[in-house]
Design brief:
By secondary structure, this protein is of the alpha+beta class. It is built from four helices and seven strands; from the N terminus they run E-H-H-E-E-E-H-E-H-E-E.
Length: 149
Amino acid sequence: MSELIIRRMKEEDLAQVCAIEEETFSMPWSRSSFQETLSYYHTLFLTAELEGEIAGYCGCYQSLEEAEITNIAVKRQLRGHGIGRRLLEELMRIGKEQGAFAYTLEVRVSNQAAIHLYESLGFVSFGIRKNFYEKPKEDAMIMWRHWEV
């Protein structure tokens, strides 16, 4: 695999980001949702670029020392190559520099590949949100990762 470049998401990335979002999620964010989110000072959204194309992205909202990871997706044909891991590691590295010492996310209970990735990065399950997801209806596992301050 060529060199993977992790960088902040830009508005000109959104066509490719939205294509990945639509291929990944049954209820994808719209382009306008991404545009609005990118304008907020308390958000951090990153892309993984491979050979000039967006291979994946992730993002979070940060509030003081906590951050909520809202999105992470990798192009279907590039999954399993560590791109999601690299994105999350960089997201948390930058967030930690900005004072975030706890991260949370929700994940479909059936998404074992994602759960395994999150656990390998130090996230632990803190409970279940019943019927959190639609299309199809499914429970969400709530996961957290904390650092010592």
